[in-house]
From TrEMBL:
<dbReference type="Pfam" id="PF00665">
    <property type="entry name" value="rve"/>
</dbReference>
<dbReference type="InterPro" id="IPR001584">
    <property type="entry name" value="Integrase_cat-core"/>
</dbReference>
<dbReference type="InterPro" id="IPR036397">
    <property type="entry name" value="RNaseH_sf"/>
</dbReference>
<comment type="function">
    <text>Involved in the transposition of the insertion sequence.</text>
</comment>
<dbReference type="Pfam" id="PF13276">
    <property type="entry name" value="HTH_21"/>
</dbReference>
<feature type="domain" description="Integrase catalytic">
    <location>
        <begin position="98"/>
        <end position="265"/>
    </location>
</feature>
<dbReference type="Pfam" id="PF13333">
    <property type="entry name" value="rve_2"/>
</dbReference>
<protein>
    <submittedName>
        <fullName>IS3 family transposase</fullName>
    </submittedName>
</protein>
<dbReference type="InterPro" id="IPR048020">
    <property type="entry name" value="Transpos_IS3"/>
</dbReference>
<dbReference type="InterPro" id="IPR025948">
    <property type="entry name" value="HTH-like_dom"/>
</dbReference>
<dbReference type="GO" id="GO:0015074">
    <property type="term" value="P:DNA integration"/>
</dbReference>
<dbReference type="InterPro" id="IPR050900">
    <property type="entry name" value="Transposase_IS3/IS150/IS904"/>
</dbReference>
<dbReference type="InterPro" id="IPR012337">
    <property type="entry name" value="RNaseH-like_sf"/>
</dbReference>
<dbReference type="GO" id="GO:0003676">
    <property type="term" value="F:nucleic acid binding"/>
</dbReference>
C-alpha cells in the first residue's frame, strides 16, 4: 500500500468505530418510540439535552426527517357543550385569561370533554388542572355528564388544595350547567374558593384546559379505532399519569409537571 503502518492501523480503527450519526439515530428513534410518536424534534432535542447529550436541534430535525419520524397533527373535531343558558349563578371572569401564576394551586381550571366509544357509548372526562405547572390534580370519568360526575373531580382536589395551597384558590370553568348548580357553588363557598367563569361562547377564556384536551385527543385518541368504554378509561388514566410524570414541557425548563413541582419545592427548602 506504500503508506506508514501507523496510518494504516489508524484507518482500520476508524472503520471499526460506530458511525456517530448512527448513535444519534438510535437515541432519537428510542426517544420517539418511548413517547409513542407524540414528540416533535423540539421536544426530542429538549429531552436529549436534559439527559446530557450535546446535540443541535437542527441536527435532530434533520435526522428525524431522514428517518421519517413525524409527530402527526390533528384536525379539531366537535366539542362537548354543557351550556344550557342561565340555570343558576353565573360568576364573573376573575381569571381574565391570566393563566400564569408563580404559586401552586392559586389558579386551577376545569371543563368537561366527550369521547365516542364502541356500542354507541360515550365517555365524559372532567379534569382539574393547576395552572402553576399544568398538572392534572384530579379527574373523573363517566358514561353520562351528571352533576355527581363533575363533583367527584372537585372532591378529589379539595384535600390537596387544603394541604398545599398557600393562597386562596380560584377555580375557573365555562358557564356549563354543572358549574352554575347550587351544589357546585355552595361547595366552593364552603371551602373558601373563588369561582371564575369564561364569557359565553368564548372558549379562549379557558385556553389552558382546551389546550390539554387538544393534546390528549391528538396523542392518544384521534386516528385510532373506537374502543370500549372500559378500555378507553384505562387508556386515559395511563395518559394522564404519563402527562403528569413523563411528558416534558419546554416552558417548565424541559421538565414534566410533577418533576417541576418537586424541583421547585426542593429549592424552596
Amino acid at each position: 500500500m506504500k503508506i506508514p503502518e501507523a496510518t494504516y492501523q489508524y484507518q482500520i480503527k476508524q472503520m471499526k468505530q460506530k458511525n456517530p450519526n448512527e448513535t444519534w439515530e438510535t437515541l432519537i428513534l428510542e426517544t420517539f418510540e418511548k413517547h409513542e410518536g407524540r414528540y416533535g424534534y423540539r421536544r426530542i432535542h429538549a429531552e436529549l439535552k436534559t439527559q446530557g447529550y450535546p446535540v443541535n436541534h437542527k441536527k435532530v430535525q434533520r435526522i428525524m426527517k431522514k428517518l421519517g419520524l413525524k409527530c402527526e397533527k390533528f384536525v379539531r373535531k366537535s366539542r362537548y357543550k354543557s351550556y344550557k343558558g342561565t340555570v343558576g349563578k353565573v360568576a364573573k371572569n376573575r381569571l381574565n385569561r391570566r393563566f400564569h401564576t408563580p404559586h401552586t394551586l392559586q389558579k386551577v381550571v376545569t371543563d368537561v370533554t366527550e369521547f365516542k366509544c364502541t356500542n354507541d357509548e360515550k365517555l365524559y372526562l372532567s379534569p382539574i388542572m393547576d395552572l402553576y405547572n399544568g398538572e392534572i390534580i384530579g379527574f373523573s370519568m363517566s358514561k353520562s355528564p351528571t352533576l355527581e360526575f363533575v363533583m367527584d373531580s372537585l372532591k378529589q382536589v379539595l384535600p390537596i388544595i387544603q394541604e398545599r395551597a398557600k393562597y386562596r384558590t380560584t377555580i375557573h370553568s365555562d358557564q356549563g350547567w354543572h358549574y352554575q348548580h347550587y351544589k357546585w357553588v355552595h361547595t366552593l363557598k364552603e371551602n373558601k374558593m373563588y369561582q371564575s367563569m369564561s364569557r359565553k361562547a368564548t372558549c379562549a377564556d379557558n385556553a389552558a384546559m382546551e389546550n390539554f384536551f387538544g393534546l390528549l385527543k391528538q396523542e392518544m385518541y384521534y386516528g385510532e379505532q373506537l374502543i370500549s368504554y372500559e378500555a378507553l378509561k384505562m387508556k386515559i388514566e395511563k395518559y394522564i399519569h404519563y402527562y403528569n410524570n413523563d411528558r416534558i414541557k419546554q416552558k417548565l425548563a424541559g421538565m414534566s409537571p410533577v418533576k417541576f413541582r418537586t424541583h421547585a419545592s426542593q429549592l424552596a427548602v
